[in-house]
Amino acid sequence: MSNSLALLAEIRQSSERRSFEVLKLAEPLMLKRSVSQAGDDAWLVYEQIILAALDEGQIDLAKSVLFILDTRFKDSQRVKRLSGLVMEALGHTDEAQTLYTEMLEKDATNVLASKRLIALLKSQGQIPLAIRELVTYLDTHGNDFEAWLELSHLYLSQHLYPQAAFCLEEVILQQPANHYFHLHYAELQYTMGNLDVALKEYLRVVELSTDNVRGFYGVKLTADRLMTESKKGKSSGNKKDQQSNRMDNVPQQATLERLSELATERLVSVYNRASDTSKKTAEKWLKE
């Protein structure tokens, strides 16, 4: 039994779920009522079993173990959160939502309740409510970059691009060396038509990830589009002030041409190592 308890502790410490394995290890412990041998960690083992049971669809097992915890820790917010998870698994979403809301009324800083409520609202398609709850959560937990990233995704699902961009800026401030976030931000700025910002971010991507195909595609597309807009602007005598101001931040034509050429060279180099079909497709696009 001690070996099973030690393996369960190892899984907890690694922050892995490994739910099927957890249930296999827990089965003999539950049958022989040996979980108590874990001492003070017994309650962590019970929680681990509940989460694994929910993952594997064993709701009755989760309910029976939850009863043990609820009897021992009657007013525990942690146990209430587990109760909410069981309610969700049973399809009692309204009851779960009420429970999480009551938990937050007692303690607005309850991270577990906030995240479960947000996840529940999102799963029900109540995106505006999920956004509202996530904004409230970030008022208190502004250093949670994953929450900012989730809020960005929610805003994008509602086509609220400026708000999504703001959230990504917060993510980048906290994770400046992660090229994926710069890439996501660059693509969003490109979509919004902020080409000068998009180009800078694409360049940042290829600086952080030197063989990033999407990054080099972004550099080429943005540089080519900036050159096209610049030519159109010069041939038009009635440019708007806003367009003029935006183009003031754009690199010189020669710089844009060189960036496009360098991006093309890097893409050709990458696709030279790919299959013939991919290589031909890429070369055809790059020549257009």
From TrEMBL:
Gene Ontology CC, one term: EMC complex
Principal location class: endoplasmic reticulum
Domain of life according to the entry: Eukaryota
Membrane protein topology class: Peripheral membrane protein
Protein's job: Part of the endoplasmic reticulum membrane protein complex (EMC) that enables the energy-independent insertion into endoplasmic reticulum membranes of newly synthesized membrane proteins.
Spans annotated as Disordered: 228-253
Annotated compartments: Endoplasmic reticulum membrane
Similarity field: Belongs to the EMC2 family.
Record InterPro entries: EMC2-like, TPR-like_helical_dom_sf, TPR_EMC2
Every EMC2 TPR-like domain range: 80-189
The keyword Hydrolase belongs to this UniProt entry's keyword annotation: no
Pfam families, alphabetized: TPR_EMC2
The keyword Endoplasmic reticulum belongs to this UniProt entry's keyword annotation: yes
Stretches with biased composition (Basic and acidic residues): 228-243
Subunit comment: Component of the ER membrane protein complex (EMC).
Keyword annotations: Endoplasmic reticulum, Membrane, Repeat, TPR repeat
Name of the protein this chain belongs to: ER membrane protein complex subunit 2
